[in-house]
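go over this record:
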Amino acid sequence: MRPASIDDSHPVTNPLLITIDGPAGAGKTTVSRLLAELLEYRYLDTGALYRSVAYSVLINNIDFEDDADLTAHLKEFDLTPRADKNGFRLFWNDRDITDQIRTPEISMMASAVSAKPAVRNFLLDMQREMGKDKALVCEGRDMGTVIFPEADIKFFLDADPHVRACRRYKEMPPKTTVTLEDISRDMLQRDQNDSRRALSPLKPADDAIRIDCTHIDPQTVVRLMMACIVPMLKARNQ
């Protein structure tokens, strides 16, 4: 159902490309899905693409520090996103790996693998192909700076590190052996890795709208975003 904040003049023939960047645990996934549902747009979790590469590297025991080995592996890497009600599911060699890539180990591996030029170049065309028709909400770490610098509207979400770690801990399976301290340590390490890397570091685009999500829930974040999006949609429809 379309929200009351968008009237019947909401243009379906002139859609937007929206990027949402930020560190782990800032709420990007929840907010992106809610926003995509409200706008009746597609949703793209680009972090899942990097997690998929990391998963395949781990399963195949590939030395990702060896550029030749990594490049050879990517030439045989068959990843297919298939749309579903939650955005899409990822199939590697026709096997659904969507759930298997959501572990702390894969998160850390994805952070390291995503710094490799071969991996970023491999996924660049796939992501841009998904965004060419717009009507897309995409989340990641360099969506507004590198992948879609021409996006119609860009957001950058952030939150206090402890709050982010607690959120991620609550997402863990009930019987997990991972502790809050483990997640907090890994998250801080990943923040450093992502923000300090030379290639596509985690940072807000110069024209991004920054939102601190420490003390506000996802629904409030979406309302703040909609306050920026609706005027743009209406202006395009005039």
